[in-house]
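re the bet — no i am not wrong, look at it urself. input seq straight from the record:
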Amino acid sequence: MSEKSTFHETKEVVSRLREPIKIKAVAVSFAKERGHMIEITTNLSWSDIDSLYEDMSALIEAYIKLIEGPMKSKYLGMIVNEAQ
C-alpha cells in the first residue's frame, strides 16, 4: 500500500444513572473548532426533571470540568434535541 494510513482517536465519557438519565460528552468538530458538547437524555416526566434541576446542574458542571481538565478538550456547549 502506497497510501498513508490515518489514525483517528476519539475520547468519549458516558455515565449512566439507572437509565432514566444518560449524560455523555460527545466529540464534535465544526469548521474551525474542535471539542466536546454535552448530551443529556432523560426518560422522565417534566415534573421529575424540574425536581432534579440542582442535581443536573451540578452534573453538567462536573462534566465541563472533566472535558476541560483530564480530557484536555474545549467545551463547546450543550446539544439540544427536542423530541417531537
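see?? The first helix runs from residue 46 to 51. told u. also The two ends are 48 Å apart (CA to CA). so pay up
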